[in-house]
Amino acid sequence: MLLEVKQATKSFRGRRGGPPVLAVDAADLRASDGEFIAIVGESGSGKSTLARMLLGLIPATGGAIQLDGVDIAKMRGATRADYRRRVQAVLQDPAGSLNPRKTVRRCIAEIIRLHALASGRDAVDAMVVDALEMVGLSPADSFLDRFPNELSGGQRQRVLIARAVVLRPKIIVADEAVSALDASVKAGVLRLMTDLQRELGLGYVFITHDLPVVKKVADYVYVMQAGRIVEHGPKDRIFEHPEHPYTQTLLAASPVLELAD
Amino acid sequence: MTTDRADEQAPLLRVEDLAVRLPTGRREMVDAVRAVSLTVRRGERVGIVGESGSGKSVTGRAIAGLLPENPRVRVTGSIRFDGVEHVGAPARAWQQVRAHRVGMIFQDPLTFLNPTMRVGRQVREAIPRRRGEPVEQEVLRCLALAGLTNVEEVVLRFPHELSGGMRQRVLVAIAIAKRPELIIADEPTTALDATVQQRVLQTLDETVTTLDTALVLISHDLAVVAGMTDRLYVMWGGRVVEAGPTAEVMSHPKHPYTQALLRSVLSLVDEEVELYSIPPAFRDWLRDEGAAVSFIDEAVR
Q1: From the list B222, B251, B276, which residue is nearest A187 (CB)?
Q2: How far is CA A142 from CA A104, A122, A129, A139, A151, in A?
Q3: Does A14 touch chain B (CB under 8 A)?
């Protein structure tokens, strides 16, 4: 499966009659299942706007987003539902993405019913349990009836991943999905993500400003600055021989842990 | 209130057996800080590192005298600034010390800055009134010292007109405006982009060196704390589990928790090692017995 951004542009109306803001400027990007791609850039670079365009949450004002050659803006009915199932989102703030009044069971079960993947209480419950075990929330029974505020940050992020993988997607768009987590928890969630990549053949579009993490997990890297993709390439090439001055600046700035030994 | 200011060797800040209990609900209380002892000498840089929930920020707020004003908040132990005890002392006494001698920098400049007031005035208000000194010059000097350029322009701006990095520099300017003896910085750069973070840390570093100010830097980011401090305190579960010279703690961690924390941090940057997350069973052990053991370097005592 190929999710492709072709010369996509998104401009927002300017403030008080000012010139329009080009949040994303003629971007090209290719994401496929099984591949871990990362979009890196600083605040305001347009990386989150691009993520939202990939998810079909905001329409492109120019160019197109295509899934296996079909423009997502033109999809209707079953094709659109299929796209909605195969491309999933995991966003930064798990507290804000989960309804505080719904239990873990309910928040995953309603997705299953919405996509009609199972019917009947027992069948749905079995799928929920399955998804929770898959993301390491085990034993799943002990998490089913908890509310988001009864979970830690890492557990909430795992619930979001469970809610995404229960649909058996091909690509997960993760916008700063681990940025707010402590190092140990971050390592745990990243481990889960790479395990799922291997086991389910999942692909990721991982949006972050955290370069060390990208170096650790990504296969292919896009660098964004001021709405434009200024450089892209296989991870090793980007980190060892960055060509664009902005990439070089970014690499030089990421904090390095130096040990005395 | 006791005073031993005559003793020149007394550290600038000495915290002993600090415990803080905070209300979390109508009846429930949480022991956010259980037993924290630490010292900061004049001009020294001290780091407090820990994960969320370790009690590091509550410790910082207790030292800064900024815990919520709620009669159910319980603070015990001792916090002495320049020999003057302030646990149990009248709030006004500590406010006097804070107003003149302790500066603070927090993560989120937008909640700390007044949105309706121009930057220049906010810095000016932090400058203690001394007779005959031209305050306007001092405002510009502080902003320049905090690494801002074009300061004549910046003083006229409102906080929302500045970028995140510039706002954080304004906080640095406000913190240094009173020429404090101690600056407490709680996650001062966590919300910033890497390139901006690097520049703000550099500024903070230069500023505390120039003014010979002591610094308490609180962060979850080991890389940030390691690069900025002389001594390091590692917190878990409201306790200090390890303390010592930063380089020593980083290269030869003694407490199993410090070792595990370092291992997970390194696993995020080292491609050769597998991603490591501290196992839940290890945290259970910490809660039951592990955190009660501490490795405090003799030099620190």
Answers
A1: B276
A2: 10, 17, 10, 6, 11
A3: no
